[in-house]
Request: fold
Amino acid sequence: MKNVNTVVSTAMASLIALGTLGLQSDAFAADKKDVEKCYGVAKAGKNDCKTLSNACAGHSTADNQKDAFIALPAGSCERIVGGSLEAPADMK
Reply:
């Protein structure tokens, strides 16, 4: 029975590690040439990276939070009402 618990623990640790790697690569999605950071349009809990009030992706507390961004295809942010390519002045 001890071996089964070890296998399950190892499998869970592997899944957590893979998930963490996935989040890290998503956080850098806005650094690619074909995407842009679009501020002020993310739904609560759906932002791509840190904000003024937290340090993690997915932790924004309100819809359309001005300091939260999502990575969008280049050229699409300006078409969204409330979308901004610039971070709020107090975030720079």
About this structure: The longest strand covers residues 35-39. Residues 4-11, 17-27 have pLDDT under 50 and may be disordered. Residues 54 and 60 are 7 Å apart (CA to CA). The chain is about 30% helix and 10% strand.
